[in-house]
Amino acid sequence: MKKSMWAAAAAVGLAGMVLAGSGLAAASESQPETADGKIRTVSASATGVVMEVPDMAQITFGIVTNGEKADAAQSENTEKVNQVIATLKGMGVEDKSIQTSGYSISPQYDYDNLDVNKQPKLTGYQVRTTLQVSDRKIADAGKILSESVKAGVNNVEGVVYTCSTYDEKYEEALQKAVKAARKKADVLAKAEGASAGKVVSISEGYQDLSARYQSSDIGAAYETADAVQNASSIPDLSAGTLQIQAEVSVTYELAY
């Protein structure tokens, strides 16, 4: 009786060893190792792109004044800047959305008529204040630009567009990039008779923050002070489409 029990136990143990051996063989096939014991891998990089229509605008314009004396030009400039800011606030633009992004006072010279020492003659001074209005709906940007010109703006540098949902759309682009990377890795692995298995590592590519904004050449329509003053109508602003893209690099285990 004892002999039979020992024989049965030995048979069960042997079967367990066979099953365990089969399991090890299966794992070895799904995660093949190189001669030095490292897991074989395949890597791929990909880009995901999402197209989105911008809904927000950032406007940059300036107030330029000239005078024979610096203090006179500065006084006139300050008065006009205050008028423009008051106009913006009257249209509902908050303080946090108005930024003085530039200020300068520079001497002006006449290079065509030289003085007795053959040096350009000083004719006066120019004061320039640059204002940046941000976080405005594109639907309101044209009116803001038009009313600001009436209030004293005489130099329009440009308008840039962005999306209020940029971060959300960027995440969507990341997801597309990851899917595209796996597809490329599968194509590469197939050449080896395998497929892309578990992810070993994944990294995000460089994110260009300037890509958040799309420039407009509307400033070209206001290249001179006369052009600005003659712009009595509200300009039509067409934002076009913003391309949002993300890049990833992924390494996978080779699965056979």
What does the secondary structure layout of this molecule look like, with pairings?
Elements: H1 2-30, E1 41-52, E2 56-67, H2 70-90, E3 98-114, E4 120-137, H3 138-151, E5 155-162, H4 166-190, E6 195-204, E7 214-215, H5 225-229, E8 242-255
Antiparallel strand pairs: 1-8, 2-4, 2-5, 3-4, 5-7, 6-8
Helix pairs in contact: 2-3
How many DSSP H or I helices?
5
| CATH third-level topology of the domain at 56-162 and 216-234 | Alpha-Beta Plaits
Major sheet summary line: 5 strands, antiparallel
Strand order of the largest sheet: 3-4-2-5-7
- Over the alpha carbons, how many angstroms does the gyration radius reach? 34 Å
Look at the helices and sheets and give the structural class.
Answer: alpha+beta
Could you list the spans in which at least 5 consecutive residues all have pLDDT below 50?
1-31
Helix content: 25-40%
Q: Using the alpha-carbon principal axes, give the shape.
A: elongated
In total, the number of strands is: 8
Quickly list its features:
26kDa_periplasmic_antigen, alpha+beta, 256 residues, 5 helices, DUF541 domain-containing protein, 37% helix, five-stranded antiparallel beta sheet, SIMPL/DUF541, Alpha-Beta Plaits
Explain what this protein looks like in three dimensions:
- 37% of the residues lie in helices and 36% in strands.
- The protein is α+β, with helices and mostly antiparallel strands.
- The protein has a domain at 56-162 and 216-234: Protein of unknown function (DUF541), domain 2 (Alpha-Beta Plaits, 2-Layer Sandwich), CATH 3.30.70.
- The protein is elongated, with a radius of gyration of 34 Å.
- The two termini are 47 Å apart.
- Residues 1-20 form the signal peptide.
